[in-house]
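Internal ticket #5521
Category: modeling
Description: The requester needs a full-assembly model to guide mutagenesis choices. All entity lines are attached below as received. Residue total reported by intake: 676.
Assigned to: D.W.
Attached entities:
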Amino acid sequence: MKLIELLDVSKVYGRGGAETRALDGIDLAIDAGEFVAVMGTSGSGKSTCMNILGCLDKPTHGRYLFRGVDVSKLDRDERALLRRRHLGFIFQSFNLLARTSALENVELPLVYRGLRKAERRRLALAQLDAVGLSDRVHHTPAELSGGQQQRVAIARALVTSPSIIFADEPTGNLDSRNSQEILTLLSGLHRERGITIVMVTHEPELAALADRVVVFRDGRIVSESNEPEPSGGGGSSRSAGPSGESGQPGESGHSRLSGSWGPGSELRGGGAR
Amino acid sequence: MMAWIAMVIALKEIRRNKLRSFLTGLGIVIGVSAVIVMVHLGKGASRNVTEEIASLGKNLLILSPGTRRRGPGGTRSDARDFDDGDVSAVEREFEDVIMAPLVVRPVTAVYANANVSTTAIGTTSKYLDIRDWAVSRGRGFAAHEVAAGSRVCILGQTVVDELFQGEGLLDVSFRIDRLSCRVIGVLEAKGQSAMGSDQDDIILMPLRTMQRRLAGNTDVSQIMVSVSEERSLAAVSERLRALFRERRNIARGAADDFEVRDMKEIAAMVEKSTSTLTALLGAIAAVSMLVGGIGIMNIMLVAVTERTREIGIRLALGARGREVLLQFLIEAGVLSTLGGLVGVLLGVGGSLLLTMKMTLPFVFVPEIVAVSFLFSAVVGIVFGFLPARRASMLDPIEALRHE
Ligand SMILES: Nc1ncnc2c1ncn2[C@@H]1O[C@H](COP(=O)(O)OP(=O)(O)OP(=O)(O)O)[C@@H](O)[C@H]1O
Ligand SMILES: [Mg+2]
């Protein structure tokens, strides 16, 4: 089932002479349960595309179908509600509220969902536990390492059980060890819970963990492959998450990496510190 | 629901940044407490004045020659003084009033090495009744002393202090101008009058004594008439006027060359002018409240810039513009209301303390407390609106990118 579909989407910044065509007729479909990596040179339009997918911005032309519904014409508030109900974000710069505990940061999206305090607390603690931060719940971002902050951000993105998570260079501010840990966490969540993830990255070895890689250049998608690096033929089916949703056969939803991942305990292990 | 969410978030934000919250509310604290203190001081002063006017005597009419004129110069004194004939005429006309004729004269009192300038008043023993003034030591005038014009006098506390400096003084004789006079009593201290003069800087003597031995004539410079509670002051005043117009041969249509002052009227007048002053003080203080509001707006505007990233995060997580607006409005409203509350406490406390220090009566004015408190909440919301709107209109992408 197609969760997301971009149909001939363009984004033009500025007007007249100063016009920048950041996206130029993009077609992209993402299935529920997929883990898609987005790559491309700087300025190729990756973030622009993510902003549109994340309903933070509107396309200039084209249609954006979210679960078959055209959301490209939604107004500000409607997009906000869509984000609130269905989308999760992980940012390069973490974007946690300063001077606010990890717990409260994770609770924040639940506040906007109108959950009661006890329920918020329960869900937030469970998510913090899932990202291995149960011993850091009262720490503020300033008291956490970069990797830990990003794990708080992941917990915050997950806590509402969104349909999809958008991560624009989630490891861009982290060293390679922390990057690996975060990616291990994300792909583990993807595999175990069947969470749909779209992630922008510049690191081929991180993109390699995805089911599919989409490459941008000058506002266009120049390649879509399930093979970021040539490493043997396809055929093995991706292990779908508990939701059981899988990529449409023959299109792209394959990854031979999925099988190579360790048991679920690795998820915890990666988050222990 | 939305309001609840915004409320929860606003309260969290207020608690998270205590210094900013404190500074935001501070202007309102100062504004509200200033309004409350000003108004209470004004009211206290006004009450003080009216109480002192009342202490001159209730239902009192004062007849004096000349008329008050506006502007410099004050009382015109070229009009003829009253005399003993006028006094007896008043006595004849009204049987049921208490009246006292007065001769007021600046004098120099001398005792031993001390030498003081003061005011001597020649009057009858009724004067003390009318003014509700008691003798604290010694005694008042005896009837025969008044009738005979004996050389006896009663001293005000200030004269006692300056002339006798604590020495025993009853039955002691001292000199008033060229008159030697024996002290028979001391008046209870009254303090300052409503107009600021020292009421205790005074020497009383029998009218006759003053007329014969100091003034050398039978003029009377004032007549005080005290009317019993149940009689209309206005009616008595009107009759007095008619009587004196006749006695002084004032032609029909010509202006009076004397005056019948009604102390109640004066009290009302003074009260009016002090309440105008109170209103003025209150208005000045209200400006400080406005300044407090602008302070809120200032800090909130800075906060919105400073908190752009926070706002971006909230928007990305699905907050709608109106929820951000409401959050900031509630923050401003709560802070200014809290500021108002603290301002009320400080204001009332400060008023109590200051009125005590200034020995003014404390007159609690609940209206001004309520109004300034309500106003503080309104100020927060009104001045919080612009920053809140600015916050709610931020673009999430740009807000997130903000450093
Ligand atoms: N708000 C904007 N106004 C004008 N031009 C913009 C704006 N945002 C992006 N652009 C332009 O659109 C193009 C694509 O930008 P985008 O941020 O999507 O690139 P990117 O692929 O994310 O690059 P990077 O890898 O450096 O993050 C760039 O040429 C950029 O200058
Ligand atoms: Mg980018």
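Resolution: model delivered.
Comment from assignee: Residues A 13-14, 20, 22, 40, 42-48 surround adenosine-5'-triphosphate (ligand 1) (CB under 6 Å).
Ticket closed.
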